[in-house]
Design a protein that fits this description.
Largest sheet: 6 strands, mixed
Helix content: 25-40%
Strand content: 15-25%
Number of helices: 17
Distance between the termini: 41 Å
Oligomer: single chain
Structural class: alpha+beta
Strand order of the largest sheet: 14-21-13-20-18-19
Length: 532
C-alpha cells in the first residue's frame, strides 16, 4: 500500500471510530478489562535477545533491566551504579566508588568483582565491540576492594564517561547469567539491577516487565509494562482507538505517519509530545562512485534538491530543515557553517560549466555518458521512498536522472558496508552518541560514512585527525579539531543534510510522567504513572 493510501486509510479509521462512538469519552482512556497499573506499549518489533553485551535486542527494553556505572542527561554525567568517581591527573585511571547494598534480580551482589567480570566479558568479545573506540582504549580492569573498581586506559580518552553511559554494551548483568564465563554466546537469564525485570516473553507477541521490588533507587510507580508486538501501524492505531494500548513512542518504525500524527494531535483526544531535534537525516553522496566522485556534481545536487519541500510538505513541518550534518545544539557542532539553499539555476550553471550538456530528452550527457545515479533506501521505510520520489523530480529539473531502489533492510545495511552506491540514506546516532561516537565511526570501513568518504583526497588526514581528537584532553583544541573535520566534510558536499529528526509520542490522557531521555533509543517507563 502506498504512503498516500496508507495515510488516507488511517485517517478514515480514525474518523470512523470517532463518529461511531467507539471512542467517545473513553477514546483516550484504558480499556475497562485490563489492569489499571499495567502500561501497554505498542511496538512493531519484538524485544528479541536483551543480553546487554550484544546488539540484537531492543535498546529500550535493555534499558529497563540493565544499568550503567554512570548515566547522562541534559545536565551532564550523573551517578548511577557508581556513587562517585575519581580521575587521575593524566586522564588514564578512573576509580569508581560503587553503591553498596545493590543486588541483581537473581539475588547476586553487585560489587567490584561483578563489574570486572562484565568488563572482561565485553573485552573478551573485542571484535564485536570494536565500533566503539572506548573498548580499544581499555588497558586494565581491577577490583580494588568490594566496592571500588578501577579502570586504566592506554591513552587519555575524553568521551570515557559518556560512552560508559550508553545503553550498551557497558551495562551490568549478573555473573550467574554468564555461560562458560562469557556473554558472547548468550546468557542463561536476564538478571539486572534496573527498575524493571523481564518476567515473561512470547516471541513476536509480547513481553512483560514487572517492577523490581528490590530496586535500589526510586521505585517505578507502574507495577508492570506490557510490550505488545503489533504487525503494522494500522493495527496499532486501531488498538489505540479501542483503548487496548497506552503508548506509542518513537520515530519512523513505531510511529504512525506524519499525517495521522498531526490529525490525532489536532483532535485532542490523546496527549502528544515531540522531542527537540535528536539526530540528523542526510543523504550520502559517495565520493568514489562513478558520477558522484565529481565534486561539482555533488555540489549541484545540493542546490537541486528542495529540502524545504521535504520538511514542510512530506514531513508536514514536523522536522526542521537541516543546513549542516549535525544540528547546532550538538556539542562542538555550532560552527556557523552556511547551508545551501534550493537554487536549480545554480545547479544548472555548475553542471554546464562542468561539461554536462542538456539533450533533447531532458537529461545531461558528457563523453557519451548519461548523468544517471541511483539512490538506495530501506524498503520498509515508506517515508524514504516518498522523499526519493521528490528528489527524482527535483533532479530531473536540472537534467540528472535518478533511479530509486528499495532493498530489504539487511541488504540495505550490507550495501553500506560495500560502498556500492551512489546515494544512500543516513541518520546520525543522536545524543549522547553525537558527535564523538558518530564521528569516530567514520574510520570504520563497515559504515556507509567511511565508504562515502573513502574517495576524498584528504581521507587519510581526516581519519588521523579523528584518532587524535579522541585522545585530546584540551577542550579548545578539541573544538578546533571538530571544526576542521566538520568544515571539510561540509565543503566536500559528501552529505546532503535533509532534516533534524525528532521522537514523537502519542499516549492516552491517563498516563502521566511521559518525557524523553537524552538517548533517543530509550523510553523512560520508570518515570510514567497513571493519573489516580
Amino acid at each position: 500500500m502506498s504512503k498516500k493510501w496508507t495515510s488516507i486509510w488511517l485517517l478514515i479509521v480514525c474518523a470512523t471510530l470517532l463518529l461511531s462512538g467507539c471512542v467517545g469519552s473513553k477514546a483516550a482512556t484504558k480499556s475497562q478489562d485490563r489492569s489499571s497499573d499495567q502500561l501497554v506499549y505498542a511496538s512493531t518489533k519484538d524485544i528479541r535477545d536483551i543480553n546487554p553485551h550484544l546488539y540484537s535486542g531492543e535498546m529500550s527494553a535493555q534499558n529497563m533491566v540493565f544499568e550503567p556505572l554512570v548515566t547522562i542527561n541534559e545536565k551532564g554525567i550523573q551517578p548511577a551504579l557508581a556513587e562517585s568517581w575519581d580521575i587521575s591527573k593524566d586522564g588514564l585511571v578512573y576509580t569508581f566508588h560503587l553503591r553498596k547494598g545493590v543486588t541483581f534480580t537473581d539475588g547476586a551482589p553487585f560489587n567490584a568483582e561483578a563489574v570486572k567480570a562484565n568488563f572482561d566479558a565485553i573485552l573478551g568479545n573485542m571484535k564485536r565491540h570494536a565500533w566503539i573506540n572506548f573498548v580499544l582504549e581499555i588497558k586494565d580492569t581491577k577490583a580494588v576492594d568490594e566496592n571500588t573498581f578501577q579502570l586504566t586506559l592506554k591513552h587519555p580518552y575524553y568521551p570515557t564517561l559518556t560512552e560508559l553511559a550508553l545503553t550498551r554494551p557497558f551495562r551490568f548483568i549478573s555473573p550467574n547469567s554468564f555461560i562458560d564465563g562469557t556473554t558472547a554466546n548468550g546468557v542463561k537469564s536476564y538478571a539486572g539491577t534496573g527498575p524493571f525485570k523481564l518476567t515473561e516473553h512470547k516471541k513476536d507477541q509480547f513481553a512483560i516487565f514487572e517492577a523490581n521490588e528490590n530496586y535500589w533507587g526510586e521505585k517505578p510507580k507502574l507495577k508492570s509494562v506490557k510490550w505488545k508486538v503489533m504487525p503494522d501501524q494500522q493495527t496499532i492505531l486501531l488498538a489505540l482507538q479501542k483503548g487496548e494500548i497506552d503508548l506509542l513512542f518513537g520515530s519512523d518504525g513505531d510511529m504512525v505517519d506524519n499525517d495521522t500524527f498531526q490529525s490525532l494531535e489536532e483532535k485532542g483526544k490523546y496527549s502528544t509530545l515531540k522531542s527537540r531535534p535528536i539526530a540528523s537525516r542526510a543523504i550520502l553522496l559517495n565520493a568514489h562512485a562513478d558520477f558522484t566522485k565529481d565534486k561539482t556534481i555533488r555540489e549541484a545536487i545540493q542546490y537541486a534538491v528542495n529540502k524545504s519541500s521535504i520538511a514542510e510538505g512530506i514531513l508536514n513541518g514536523s522536522e526542521k530543515e537541516a543546513e549542516t550534518l549535525l544540528a547546532p545544539n550538538i556539542p562542538y557542532a555550532d560552527l556557523g557553517l552556511k547551508g545551501i539553499k534550493y537554487n536549480p539555476d545554480k545547479a544548472n550553471e555548475l553542471l554546464e560549466a562542468d561539461g554536462w550538456e542538456l539533450k533533447g530528452d531532458g537529461y545531461r550527457y558528457k563523453d557519451g555518458k548519461k548523468l544517471e545515479i541511483t539512490i538506495y533506501y530501506n524498503a520498509d521505510n515508506a517515508q524514504e521512498r516518498t522523499i526519493s520520489e521528490s528528489m527524482l523530480n527535483d533532479l530531473k529539473e536540472v537534467g540528472i536522472s535518478l533511479k530509486i531502489l528499495g532493498e530489504e533492510k539487511q541488504a540495505f545495511l550490507d550495501r553500506q558496508k560495500t560502498g556500492e552506491f551512489d546515494l544512500m540514506y543516513s541518520l546520525s546516532w543522536g545524543l549522547p552518541y553525537d558527535p564523538h561516537t558518530y564521528v569516530s565511526s567514520f574510520r570504520v570501513p563497515a559504515t556507509g560514512d567511511y565508504q562515502t568518504q573513502v574517495g576524498l583526497e584528504k581521507k587519510e588526514w581526516l581519519d588521523q585527525t579523528i584518532t587524535d581528537l579522541m585522545i585530546e584532553q584540551d577542550d579548545k583544541k578539541r573544538q578546533d579539531m571538530y571544526r576542521q573535520i566538520l568544515t571539510y566534510l561540509h565543503e566536500e558536499y559528501v552529505y546532503l543534510p535533509l532534516t533534524y529528526s525528532v521522537t514523537k509520542v502519542i499516549y492516552n490522557k491517563d498516563v502521566k510522567g511521559v518525557g524523553f531521555n537524552l538517548n533517543q533509543y530509550e523510553v523512560p517507563f520508570e518515570k510514567m504513572y497513571f493519573n489516580e
